[in-house]
Structure formats: structure tokens, C-alpha cells
Amino acid sequence: MMKLEGVVAFVMTSEAGSISMAARRLGLAKSVVSERLAELERTLGTTLIQRSTRKLSLTGSGLTFLPRAQRILREAEEATSELAARSGKLVGPLRISAPVGFGILHLGPAVGRFLRDYPEIELSLELDDSFVDAATGGFDAVLRHGAMGDGRLIARRLASSRRLLVASPGYLDRNGTPATLGDLERHSAILYSNRASDWRFSALENGRSRSDGGWSVVRPRAALRVNSGLVMRDAAMEGLGIALLPTFFVHNALASGALIEVNIGLQAEGAELFLAYPKDHGAAAKIRAFGDSLRRSFGTPPYWEKP
């Protein structure tokens, strides 16, 4: 008889691209995942995955079986969620991906609150700054800050964050404080390497961004490019240059005076925080509960936006 745990191992390995990554996401030893795959192949009487020292690929049988295996898991999750919802409980696994910096700064207390409210949910949280496809990445939901334009997904807005130009007092003492876009172009910048290095600003009217959608773009000179918002913040605090960062990275540094906001009279493009997941997902009830719990933990407005 085919065991569900073998199907889980096969689907996760196919989506993750390696047995090691699948084991990591499942919280299991690599040897356990390998044995479950081997047992599934013995049960089906065919090889599903072609293994080599350098790469892993699906056989013809594996490609045929994969969509059916994914459907088996979706239906099993939907059945479990439906029964749990009828009994007033949320139970079982929930796999979430989130950005590294935001996770380190803000998700520890929020996750603790969620698991105290829903102790029967088995939460797996993986922090990753690379792009994770919420539809095919092997997660139930992905926490992102930035634009969402994927028609395959439901995106629940969790919180907002402004992006601010910030620099250390020492840097501004040595180099002066820019007051215009032209001034800004002559300064050293700390840039995030995983997105376009342009800085986009909208003019303000009565303290708010203009409604015509017009943007002014600055292409600053890079003193440092790095794929971590936390390293950007720390580099700015060390006086390496000016950084454009969401308030959820810099609110404490601004409060302590380690960083100073650089005001050039323009509003930088914001950073909305979303929880994204595929439509008709079997774990939708758990995902909604997780999103609601995060919103309560962050507050409205979120605590990083409060004076």
C-alpha cells in the first residue's frame, strides 16, 4: 500500500530540486527522505527520480506521477482542514517562507503568539532572501514585502512600511546633508543587490504623495551592494553612506539616534507587507489564521511606524 509520507517526500523533493533541501523543509534527516522515496518507488514498481552526484531529475514515470501526487496531497490537506474547522481546531503542518532580515527582527515574538493560540499547528518557518515562488516553491505561504502581481496567488496585506533615506550622524557631518535629488546623486549609497538599484520618489502635496503617480528616479553611486537589509542598516550606522530602507529595519536606530532620516522633500516608494498563497489552497484556514495573528502582533499602524 502506498504511504502518504512517501508521496510527501516525492513531491517535496521534486519541488525543492534536491533531497537535501526537501529534508530541510520537512525537518527530517536526508536518509529518512531517501528511504521514503525508495519505499514509494518499490511500492509503485518504477523509478520516479533519477539520482546522480551532480543533479536530480524526474524520470518519465516521475513526470507522470507528480501532478497526481500533488493532487493527492492537496486533497488530503483539504480534508484535514475541513474536519479541523468543523471541530473548531486548526491542526497539522504549516510551511512558511519569509525574508531573513524581517524574520530576525519581527517574527520571533509574532510566531510565539501564533503558536500559543494554535498549539496543534506544526509550523515550519524558513528564512530566505532569494525569490520564493509561492505557487510552486513547496511552501503553504510566502511572506513578502514589495509588489505582488501574480494571478495564481491570493495576497493578504499584513502591514505597511515607509522607506526612508537614512545615514549616520558622522557620515552627514563629514559629507553634508543632501536636500535635493541632485544633492543625493553626489553621495555614496548602500544599495540592495536583489532589486533594481534605482531610488524612486514621489513629490509630496500636503504631506502626502501626489496622486498623479509621477516618479522621480535617482541612480546613486554605490559604496556597497549587499543582499541583506540588516547589513545595509549596519553599514549605514558605520558611516559608509546613505541607505534607503523600510522603517521596519531602522525604527530602533532612528529612535536611538544611531541613524538620522535624510529629508529631501520627496516620498520614497513604500514597502507593503503581504502573505501570499495559491488559490484554493488546502491549508487556507491555517494561513488566514496565521495572517490574522501577524496583523494583531504588528498592530495598525504597525509598531515600527509609530513615533
From TrEMBL:
The keyword RNA-binding does not apply. The keyword Nucleotide-binding does not apply. Keywords: DNA-binding, Transcription, Transcription regulation. InterPro entries: LysR-type_TF_proteobact-type, LysR_HTH_N, LysR_subst-bd, WH-like_DNA-bd_sf, WH_DNA-bd_sf. Residues 2-59 form the HTH lysR-type domain. It holds the Pfam family LysR_substrate. Belongs to the LysR transcriptional regulatory family. PANTHER family: HTH-TYPE TRANSCRIPTIONAL ACTIVATOR TTDR-RELATED, HTH-TYPE TRANSCRIPTIONAL REGULATOR. This is LysR family transcriptional regulator.
